[in-house]
Design brief:
The complex is a heterodimer.
Chain A: H1 3-7, E1 27-28, E2 36-41, E3 53-59, E4 62-69, H2 77-83, H3 86-89, H4 101-116, H5 122-150, H6 154-175, E5 184-185, E6 188-189, H7 197-219, H8 223-229, H9 237-242, H10 248-251, H11 259-262, H12 283-307, H13 325-328, H14 332-343, E7 351-359, E8 362-370, E9 378-382, H15 384-389, H16 392-396, H17 401-411, H18 415-419
Antiparallel strand pairs in A: 1-4, 2-3, 3-4, 5-6, 7-8, 8-9
Helix pairs in contact in A: 4-5, 5-6, 5-12, 5-17, 6-7, 7-12, 12-17
Chain B: H1 3-16, E1 42-44, H2 59-63, E2 69-75, E3 87-95, H3 104-108, E4 114-116, E5 131-132, H4 134-137
Classes of the chains: A alpha+beta, B alpha+beta.
């Protein structure tokens, strides 16, 4: 089969609906042939978004077999959680998916909060919603920028990272660090919003839609870009559901499934926003889905800023929440609670829970089993990158190797999260 | 629209950026002011009379998720008094190569003895140099206040010539 035959091949779904190559969909064996060569694409390739290793069998320039190999940044996060008390696990959570750090924290904190049945104040919910959306913009900007770099378009990368820095400035202003913030704590958020945040965030909300317009001018109309992205890695709705895709990857195939709408958590049921969907489910739709989602995120941030209720940001629960600082000097009881919570942590009655949030990459879930002790007995995270990467093979096979880069990029996998 | 106008629209974006002020900050010469809540290098504080606030209770070490703090306490004597309480931290070490700057030590400390300061230039040529001892952490430290901090009031970073817009 020569390469020229593929160039004029029509855009068709590679698999019949809901027919998933079983049992390992991430691996497609190459056919028998003499002229095939096997190439290691990664793990240290700049366009694999981290350390994804793809063992590619090539017939000329065409990918005929593919084996996606992961595990290069497996750091044992889940086991680490079992060694820490619940409170000390919070700073660990954001380090899995380093681009969607806030969503990871939310999943972990939300799961524990449901186990200990703690009531989160209204204002804390809204602050969390605000930062979850800021985080979504952050993640999507990195996705958009790096997909530009993969095609050799470096300006977009600079423009995107310029705006990303403003998101991080807002994070630094409120949480104290630019990433990995441990801002959501059990029962609320660590601190209230500082003065000046409103003005700064308002300026951000005003500027960012204008910038996204510019990105769309650069990307959506660009004929080179469209040719590289249109019809690549097509997946129809039924197959996407069968492969377990979630988030923008699923919505690009036309399935309007969004956990923010399907199972509203935080303050999302009070927000007015649209769910962006695509039609064809190709790489271009996935890209546009994420880019247009940023408009919706800005809308949500704006509503959060305008409708932010007043009140406490931390629940009044002395058995699970650190007492306020001023009480440490005056109340012996508070001091005892403080020492107990820091050294031993609180005990969680034996139970289990699965709690999900809509991370920028899709359904990020935290499954937590407690045996009644101060540490999680078992914790498992449902990583959307891990699930979406298994459809790499079926999307990339029988295409040019250059399209493989587009496929991997458009799935927006973060290897830190896939490997954990 | 035709591909030609679509492509021209893209070019016009890059062309317009020629006339925008760059956001680049010349880092070692220009140090970006950090926000007051920024969590950087730790500091150990003293009371006004010069005694150390730390009483060596090791609660920071217990709270640290990265296990990077080592405290060895000793008894104060009337001749050698370091802290107002019975005990003081004879050894106080923070391994900066392990620290994740979560600020849990600051939250845990019941005496406000340790806080996270604003210094962020912590690179060293050897790993041993990253184990900060009590002498390096105690205020006033040898290289205190290397990093400019944005004014607390009005708290926004003022619009600067070369800063972030």
């Amino acid at each position: 089969m020569s390469a020229t035959e593929h160039a004029s091949a029509p855009v068709v779904p590679l698999w019949q609906p809901a027919q998933v190559p079983s049992p390992t969909p991430s691996k497609i064996d190459p056919p028998e042939g003499e002229d095939l060569i096997t190439v290691n694409f990664g793990p240290n390739h700049p366009s694999t978004h981290g350390v994804l290793r793809l063992i590619v069998t090539l017939d000329g320039e065409v990918v005929v077999g593919l084996d996606a190999d992961i595990g290069y940044v497996h750091t044992g996060f889940e086991k680490n959680f079992e060694q820490k008390t619940y409170w000390k696990g919070i700073p660990y959570a954001p380090r899995m998916d380093y681009l969607a750090f806030f969503a990871n924290e939310l999943a972990y904190v939300g799961a524990v909060e449901r186990l200990i049945e703690i009531e989160v104040p209204e204002r804390a919910q809204w602050i969390r919603t605000l930062f979850a959306e800021l985080n979504r913009i952050h993640s999507h900007l990195i996705f958009l920028g790096t997909s530009g770099v993969e095609l050799g378009a470096i300006s977009l990368f600079f423009y995107c990272l310029r705006e990303r820095d403003r998101v991080l400035d807002l994070f630094e202003m409120v949480t104290g660090v630019r990433m990995h913030d441990r801002y959501p704590q059990f029962g609320g958020v660590a601190e209230d919003l500082p003065r000046g945040f409103y003005a700064e965030a308002k300026r951000f909300c005003h500027d960012v839609p204008l910038r996204i317009d510019e990105y769309l001018d650069l990307v959506a109309g660009n004929s080179v870009w469209r040719d590289r992205y249109r019809g690549i890695g097509t997946i129809d709705a039924a197959t996407a559901i069968a492969m377990g895709l979630s988030g923008p990857n699923l919505r690009a195939s036309g399935v309007p499934f969004d956990l923010r709408r399907a199972e509203p958590y935080l303050a999302y049921d009070k927000m007015d926003f649209d769910i962006v969907t695509g039609e064809r489910g190709d790489a271009f739709d996935r890209l546009m889905c994420r880019t247009k989602e940023m408009y919706e995120s800005v809308k949500i941030i704006d509503q959060c800023l305008e409708g932010m209720p007043s009140g406490p940001v931390m629940a009044d629960d002395r058995k699970h929440v650190l007492p306020p600082r001023h009480e440490l000097q005056t109340s012996m009881e508070s001091l005892i609670h403080h020492f107990k919570l820091v050294t031993e942590g609180f005990r969680v009655k034996a139970n289990q829970i699965y709690y999900t949030v809509e991370s920028p990459r899709g359904e990020f879930g935290c499954f937590l089993v407690s045996d009644g002790g101060p540490k999680p007995w078992r914790i498992h995270f449902r990583a959307p990158s891990f699930v979406s990467l298994q459809s790499t093979a079926m999307m990339a096979v029988n295409r040019y190797i250059a399209d493989l880069i587009v496929v991997v990029g458009s799935l927006d996998g973060v290897m830190g999260e896939a490997d954990r | 629209m035709s591909p030609v106008t679509d492509n021209l629209k893209g070019f016009s974006v890059t062309f317009r950026h020629l006339f925008r002020k760059p956001v680049t900050q010349q880092f070692p010469e220009y140090k970006r002011p950090v926000y007051p809540r920024f969590r950087g290098r730790h500091r150990l504080h003293r009371h006004e009379n010069g005694l150390e606030k730390c009483v060596g209770c090791s609660l920071c070490a217990a709270a640290c998720p990265a296990d990077c703090i080592r405290v060895v306490a000793a008894e104060n004597t009337p001749e050698e008094r370091y802290s107002p309480g019975e005990r003081y931290a004879r050894i106080y070490e923070i391994n900066m190569s392990r620290c994740i700057f979560c600020g849990y030590c600051e939250l845990a400390c019941p005496f406000d003895a340790i806080t996270l300061g604003h210094d962020y230039e912590l690179a060293e040529m050897s790993r041993d140099a990253l184990v900060y001892t009590k002498q390096m952490l105690l205020e006033p430290g040898p290289e205190a206040r290397r990093t400019p901090v944005a004014p607390v009031d009005p708290y926004d970073i003022p619009a600067q010539e070369d800063g972030p817009a």
